[in-house]
Amino acid sequence: MTLAIVAAYALTPAIILWLCKRVPFLGKIGPVLLLYLIGIILGNTGIIPHTAYKVQDLLVSIIIPLAIPLMLFSCNFLKWNIKKALLTLLTGITAVVIAIVSGYFIFGHSIANDPAMGGDMNKIAGMLAGVYTGGTPNLAAIKIMLNVPNETYILIHSYDMAISLLYLTFVLSFGIKLFRRILHHPPAAERGLQKERDEIAQTVEDPYKGFFKKGNLLSLSAAIAISVGIFAIAGGLSMLLPKDMQMVVVILSITTLGIGVSFIRRVREIKSSYDAGMYLVYIFCIVVASMADLGRMDIAGGLYLLLYIGYVIFGSLALQLIMAKIFGIDADTVLISSVSLINSPPFVPLIATAMNNKDVIITGLTVGLVGYAAGNYLGYLIAVLL
Fold first, then answer.
1. How many domains does the chain have?
2. What is the band of 368 on the pLDDT scale with cuts at 50, 70, 90?
3. Considering only Cβ atoms within 10 Å of each terminal Cβ, which end of the chain, N or C, has fewer?
4. Exposed, middle or buried by CB within 10 Å (0-12, 13-18, 19+), for 205?
5. Which of left, alpha, beta for 149 (phi over 0: left; psi -120 to 50: alpha)?
6. CB-based contacts of 83: which residues, under 8 Å, 6+ apart?
7. How confident is residue 183, by pLDDT bands cut at 50, 70 and 90?
């Protein structure tokens, strides 16, 4: 039974990714939301028995620590336009932090009084700091570090996906034109643009193409082995501290070690390490959703949480616009970095295509990948300070 449950968790994301590629409607919904829905159905209809909790808990505890290093390995600091990328990163993260902290005081009392939230407003703020400087892996990592209930995690991520979709729609519909009116922007390079569009489209639509080729599997196996080694080292370090601090030490240690290993060229150039890490995140999504008790989720009652998330997303965008005006950052760089922080790096090629500007891709990806690295530290720090 245990092997069957683990196999179901491991294979379902592959099936969903295959369906999303071939069924346009499902592709628009996206694999994360579909996996959440499947997980909730599995966990609340008795298909997965309650006796599977130990297996689920084990999977939740090991998946994200293995995924984070794999996703960090591809971060290439050597390709930075240091001045522009660093300034964009700092203004973007500053805007997110200001929006989260101010929103904490605006909406905190109402959210803390909601029984569905468990009164853990500081933990919610920390999780939002993680997800809006990094992405889903950071949200999941901070959930584990702070011991946030599964129901709260699912509710936050569900609202996040809904508001993030509105945000992305705004950017693609008239946000690019609006920002280019307010901020300066260099003309997009038209030379070779169609070829770049084709490459971008292929990256977005089929990130797992060639995933199981022999050469790729050998190098990917090495990346996984290094990730397991990092996890083992972090686990050993955590044993030196009290039990309530062990998971914090594990997550922050693997983040630090993952960043360090990314400077090794042979590791950084391993193909598909990021995609492998993202696949583990997909598995995490279905596992944690299957652990959530639908009866304890007050989706309709979480109005203030929904407002808080909307305030953080659009408030941080407005603040980033103001700071970009002050520091002279161009419109395309601001938007690509904002999308990378709010929606995560996989959306960067999509926005670059809409902008007809391939030159911002490296900056956008770098800001997002560094955000993955910074998100765990920042999210935990904000939760503790608040």
1. 1
2. confident
3. N
4. exposed
5. beta
6. none
7. confident
57, 311, 291: which is closest to 159 by C-alpha?
A: 311
Q: Per the domain annotation, does 180 fall within a domain?
A: yes
Q: Which band of pLDDT confidence, cut at 50, 70 and 90, is reported for residue 214?
A: low
Residue 33 belongs to some domain of the structure: no
CB 364 within 8 A of CB 352: yes
Q: Distance (Å, rounded) from C-alpha 90 to C-alpha 260?
A: 21
In the DSSP assignment, the letter for residue 23 is -
Tell me which residue of 60, 69, 218 sits closest to 143, measured CA to CA. 60
Residue 69 to residue 60: CA distance in whole angstroms = 16
Please list the alpha-helical segments (H only) found in the chain: 2-22, 24-29, 31-44, 53-72, 82-112, 121-131, 136-146, 150-170, 176-182, 193-205, 214-238, 243-261, 265-268, 273-291, 303-327, 331-343, 348-355, 361-385
pLDDT higher at 288 or 212:
288
Q: What is the mean pLDDT of residues 317-327?
A: 89
Tokens of residue 2, six digits: 């245990």
283 lies in some domain: no
**pLDDT tens digits for 250-259?**
777 887 888 7
User: Which residues are within 8 A (CB) of 17 and not within 5 positions of it... i.e. 6 or more apart?
Assistant: 31, 208, 282
Q: What value does the mean pLDDT take over residues 264-280?
A: 83
pLDDT value of position 228: 92
Q: Is pLDDT above 90 for 187? A: no
- What gap in Å lies between CA 200 and CA 359, rounded to an integer? 12
Q: What b-and-e string marks burial along 349-358, b requiring 16 or more CB atoms within 10 Å of the CB?
A: bbbbbebebb
Q: Count the alpha carbons within 13 Å of 347 in the hemisphere toward its beta carbon.
A: 21
Specify if 258 maps to a domain: yes
On the question of pLDDT at 291 being above 60, the answer is yes
- What is the residue range of 92's domain? 80-273+297-385
Q: CA 325: distance to chain centroid?
A: 27
First to last CA, the chain: 43
DSSP 81: -
What is residue 327's predicted lDDT score, i.e. its pLDDT? 87
Structure tokens at 372: 């993955």
